[in-house]
Amino acid sequence: AASYDQYVKAVDGGVGIQVLNDQAGEGTLSTTRVAAQYAYQVNLTRSFAIRAGGEVAYFQRSLDWNKLTFGDMIDPRKGFIFNTNDTPRGGRVAGVDFSAGIMGYGESFYFGFAAHHLTEPNESLIIGTSKLPVKVTAHAGAKINIKDSKYGSSSSSFVSPNILFQQQADFKQILFGLYMTKGPIVGGVWYRNKD
Predict the structure, then answer these.
(1) Which residues lie closer than 8 Å to 42 by C-beta, 6 or more apart?
(2) Taking Cα atoms as reference points, which of 98, 138, 97, 140 lies closest to residue 114?
(3) What is the pTM of this model?
(4) 134/136 Cα distance (integer angstroms)
(5) What is the dihedral of CA 23, 25, 26, 31, to 10 degrees?
(6) For position 133, what pLDDT does the model report?
C-alpha cells in the first residue's frame, strides 16, 4: 500500500491518493484498489472549523480457481492427487466505490460522521450479487486541560475522553476511550462493546 496527500492551493483544499494491492492465500484472491480524496475546510469562527471530504475509488478483485483445493481432490494415503468435480467459477469483478465524511472541531472538542460504500458495490466473484453494505461511523471527543495547583492551567497536560460508533449491516460496535497527556507522555485506555 502507498499513499500521498497535500494541500493544493489551486483547488483550495487537500487532495490525496491511495493505492493498495493485496495477494491473499498465496495469490488465490487478489485485490487492487486505487482511491482519490478531496477535503475542504471552512473556518466558521476563529476557534471552530468544519472540514468535509469525499473519496472515489476503483477496485478490482480476482479469484484464481486453479489455486483452490477441495475435499474430493484428496486421497486418504497419497494426498491431493485427484481433479475436483466442483464446477470452476469465479473470475474477476471491478467497480467504483464512494465515501464521504464531515467533521467539526474547535480548541477543546471535535465530532464527525462518515459513510463508506455509499453505492454498495457488488463484490461477488461468482454468479449472483454480494453487495458491500454501507458502513457509517460517528465519533466525538474533547480535550480538557488539567490545572496545576502550583502554576495554574497547563496546555501540555490534559485528558481527552472519546467515543466512536460504527455500524455495517447488522454489525454494530461502540468504543469508549480516554487519553491522558502530561508533557511528552501519553497514555490511554479503550473499551469496546459490540453486537
Answers:
(1) 49, 50, 51, 52
(2) 138
(3) 0.79
(4) 7
(5) -20
(6) 96
**How far is residue 134 from each of residues 17, 115, 118, 123, measured CA to CA in Å?**
22, 7, 6, 13
CA gap 44, 59 in Å, rounded: 36
Report the candidate in 172, 189, 171 with the shortest Cα–Cα distance to residue 180.
Answer: 189
> What confidence score (pLDDT) does residue 151 get?
56
Alpha-carbon distance of 57 to 95, in angstroms, equals 8
Burial level of 189, CB count in 10 A (0-12/13-18/19+)? exposed
Sole residue written with cell 480535550: 143
DSSP string, 62-82: EE-GGG---GGGEETTTEE-S
In a 13 Å sphere around the CA of 71, the CA atoms on its Cβ side amount to 0
Cβ-based neighbours of 28, under 8 Å, separated by 6 or more:
63, 64, 67, 68
- Compute mean pLDDT per 10 residues along the chain, 195 residues long, and list them: 95 94 88 96 92 96 82 81 75 93 95 97 86 96 81 72 96 96 91 87
Strands (E), the chain: 2-8, 13-24, 29-43, 48-63, 74-75, 79-80, 92-106, 109-116, 135-142, 144-148, 152-168, 171-182, 185-194
Closest CA to 85 of 95, 70, 64: 70
